[in-house]
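Much of what follows relies on a compact textual record of a protein's fold. An example makes this concrete, so a full record is given next.
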Amino acid sequence: MAVDNWPQFRGPGALGVAEDPKLPDTWSETENVVWKTPIPAMGWSSPIVWGNRIFLTTAISMGEIEQPKKGLYFGGERKKSEDQHRFVVYALDYETGKIVWQREAWKGVPPGPRHLKNSYASETPVADGERVYASSATSGSSPTT
């Protein structure tokens, strides 16, 4: 039986298993891609799905950010950013990929550093059918959208 919602990290029950036989086994930049939607900045949380909406997060810096480096990289801790960041939750249409809405969950200077290979928006949101909850451990906020 296919599951309609993927409400948290690793999906229903946090099992990381999707039983839809139509899911592709392979994909690339062009193969098995239905749509692409540019999202500003860096958000490395997992997207979640509820009904016909895909929810994801990003952290938009108001200053310059060092881009991640490819490959194995030790010593990636960076100094605490002094720039304001906007922590934003996006809702996209499942069929078209168009942005349906966006909400600024928090704006401020992150209280700590990030690793070069990470983002300030790493925590995956969750949904319960009525609300989407997005939390950022680095900002100390727990906004509800």
